[in-house]
Structure formats: C-alpha cells, structure tokens
Amino acid sequence: MKAIWNGQVIAESDDTVVIEGNHYFPADSIKRDYFSDSSANTVCPWKGTASYYSLNVNGKENPDAVWYYAEPKEAAKVIKDRVAFWKGVEVVN
Fold it and tell me: pTM to 2 decimals?
C-alpha cells in the first residue's frame, strides 16, 4: 500500500492494518521529512486518544492529516506504532 499526497509517496508498506476502512501503516514506513508534530488530539471511545502530524510536501501544508494512537486502548493494541491518513491523502494498492 502507498499513501500519496500532493504528488509524493509519503508512506509505503505491505503490512497495513485496516480498521474502520482506514489503513494503518507501520510508523517506520513513513517518510519523516514530510511530517511535523501537531498539537491536535481527539478521543475515540474504544481506541483512545489520537495525536496528529501535519504534512509538508512540495511547499504545501496539510494540517493534522495523519493520526496515530501512542497508547491505544487494549481493544486497539494492533494499531500501536502505526499511522493512518485522511484530508485528501490517497491510499492505493
């Protein structure tokens, strides 16, 4: 699977986990040069507290386009050390 935004592959892996229709990529599969920390957080009742990254690719920013659960709840432990995408990031096979 590949995650693509603004014409650039930002993550690539054969080992994604699909939950609620979202592909969670291993953290070591992302191209960190395009990612920056965000202060955003949201809470999912069964996964826990999500943190976010913003994307910066080819001069364009996509705020809070990547999320992850640093300490997922037990029911979601399979997505620990993984990231997922939204806000126009295309995930393709």
Answer: 0.96
